[in-house]
Amino acid sequence: MDDDVVHRVLQEGGRDYYQETPSTSSSSPSILQSLPLHASFDRGYYLLVKSIQELRSKKEGIVAVGIGGPSGSGKSSLAEKVASVIGCSVISMENYRTGADEGNDLSSIDFDLLVQNLQDLLKGKDILTPVFDFQQKRRIGTTEIKSTSFGVVIVDGTYALHARLRSLLDIRVAVVGGVHFSLLSKVKYDIGESCSLDNLIDSIFPLFRKHIEPDLHHAQIRINNSFGQSFRDSIYKLKCKSESESGQPAYSFPKKEAQIDNFIEMYLRPPSASEEARVNDWIKVRQSGIRYYLSLGDRRIVDKNFIIRPKAEFEVGRMTLGGLLALGYNVVVSYKRASKSIIYDNLSISLETIDTLSETYLVLRGRDRKMVEAEALRLGITGPWITRSYLEMILDTKGVPRLNTPPLLPTIISPSSTHKEPPLIAPKPLRIRPELVNRDDDMSQPWTRSPTKSKVEPVLAPWQFISSDGSSIDPSSFRDTHTLQLAPMPDSFDLDRGLLLAVQAIQALLEHKGMPVIVGIGGPNFKYDDFRSLDLPLLTKNIGDMRRGRKAKVPVFDLESGARSGFKELEVSEDCGVVIIEGVYALHPDIRKSLDLWVAVVGGVHSHLISRVQRDKSKAGCFMSQNEIMTTVFPMFQLHIEPHLVHAHLKIRNDFDPVLSPESSLFVLKSNKQVAYQDILKLLDPKKICSSAQNFIDIYLRLSGIPSNGQLTETDCMRVRICEGRFALLIREPIREGDFIIQPKVDFDISISTVSGLLNLGYQAVAYIEASAYIYQDGKLLMEVDHLQDVPGPYIQIKGANKEVVVAAGSALELDGSYTTKSYLEIVLEKLPASERNSSGINVQQAARLQELVENIQSQQGSSSSSESSPSREVISPMEGVIEDMQSRIKRLERWQAINTVLWTFLMSAFVGYSLYQRKHQ
Fold first, then answer.
1. Which stretches of sequence are listed as region Disordered (predicted)?
2. DSSP string for 500-541
3. Which residues does residue 352 pair with via DSSP β-bridges, in sequence order?
4. Longest CA–CA separation in the chain, Å
5. What is the rounded average pLDDT of the residues 153-179?
């Protein structure tokens, strides 16, 4: 584990399993005996999945997991992500409500029934869990959970780590952050220093410190969820009036079973805000029955006809709204929204009636912009499209309410109920008596509180413009738009806020400077060569042509041949007035002078590799600083890239970890059963199918000195794949669950200097595999047929982001029962006779080829690369020869397959073409 990992032996609480003596059959400690004190959402998810798998393999019966935390922290999202990977039953504590009272109140949860249900399930009995309807505010039935359905049960809820449940749980997970932290930071900013953080917590989340926070310190996995409002999973929306100007319906709503919803939407203005309509400063609260959903401001992007919104709503307790009112927030706008919706194929179409506007609107929503646009065309809906929000339309008709004006809706009444709820009373801040506070050793740790410093402004400020001399100006009154420049943002931002700011900057530039807007995005994305290898004159000419509205002939570089393979034309038009120049040197002084917006991005897998090296070094008994690793593994970054990133208009810290995140995973089924190529083609969309052939070499790197049980496993290795002149790194060992291999769906390109740096840090090349792959894909499914050298028979891999689609494809090919989750490294080692293995356990002939590659790098790189001093030109220059020589050696090793690949590609292309022709004319 990383150096911040503390060994937390699970001896108190938990079930009897923890009291058993740990197994000594392996030299590696149990993952449950060394978990991080605090983890990110992505890493916490990965640790939880691995912990569940380990417990399930070592104990009988059901593994019980509790995921607790405050409202809006992301615990339900975590349970959902884990359930998508591991078959499990999720028990939501929300369904154990006893009435319509505040859900965070302990007395509103039927603990007796929940405990009895969980005890029965652990004893192997089937149970009936209640179903609570939040519109009707009562229980409406039950759902059966069979004890034999899954081997894992997750209890998800604010009080999932309560003392009455802890003794029944095998794994306890606490999640804090999300909107919980974001709201605290927002309110802290709005009201200033007049109220301490503890008092804010007591006002907005009055039950948190007394009833929730003490239980979180009993968790074994503690997650700080930095995810807030994100455009990573945006909703694309088209909106028009339900009737055209002639009075005809814009769309004939089908007579299908529709979902009916009634909402009250309220906008709260901060106590210190002016009376001007700065809706981005307002807090939105949506009431649905007895549930309340909160979003911070009107975060959206308008592009042409589309309204693009982030995943921005999070459920909070009713007392949170009362606390905000007590702190001085005012409900300045409120309205009722009645919605009738039909959902199909990841799309929804809704009729929404807004009482304040006395108007009904037709709204199409979806996660895919092209799909929403295509559906509108298919249904014959042509607009005219409305891009203003309901709030903006209300403000246009009624004006901005003054601060001393009472809210438009003085009482909060659910339109679906016939009786009035009790008035909303703002709670007084709680004062916890000292004897009620849990005296855990780490109670003083701030991990359960907002990590945002009070001096950091959580509200995104608008972009400012400056003239060429650096003075601030009003762009609307400035005549010489060519000299307009953006003023750099003083702070750095996370990926979600950075994405929003980047789009807002582009829109501001389009409005005040016009087309084209040329954006440069720079940062370490691994594969960087010497800046002198770039054709700067051609790039400058391309940028100049696009700025003048001319067609630009942009070169296409072939990584396999190491040369240009041709050109493609790009032209700026009304439909696309933005050009993005992306690359590690995009912010170099010779390039950025031609750009309008400079964006620097750091983090991601770049940081993950550094953490991985530190982890391995720690296992081997030594420690290396980040600077030492950077100097060795990324020598060109510090010398040629990092100095230019500090000048960016927008600096983004990408804390999102694609190596561990469930958002970037592929579900893979692997089998060595023979499959006919025509059967593969039948499963793919003939309009989108494409095929290719590849040769690749996999090299496995392992740090010397890491304790092992004498066997070579992927767990302690990093895999480098050499394919078509590219070097791609796989750091994470895939998750294996049932028949599935779950792995990151993106490759991370690295330069050969990074491979050399890893070798100089003490990593040893311990395995080598040669193979060829034939790939067929249509955008939803990827079918890969791999032929491994020295392994008889091919392996087929079915890959996709949708688990059900992958399962269906495997069943259609009659592969059920033939799957394996073994890696190719395991397969090669198993099939290798003992007489042909060397001391590392791999084929002697392969070891010789592997050694040839390694010696070539090390002989030319020399020992100077392992120096801990800053890199110099003398250290870097030999790498030019290494790259050239390494590429030629790889090509010699692949040459034995070249003729076969060419012939196979030709034959298969002809076969695919003939098959498609036949299918088209049937």
1. 11-31, 859-878
2. HHHHHHHHHHHHHT-S-EEEEEES--S----GGGS-HHHHHH
3. 339, 361
4. 89
5. 90
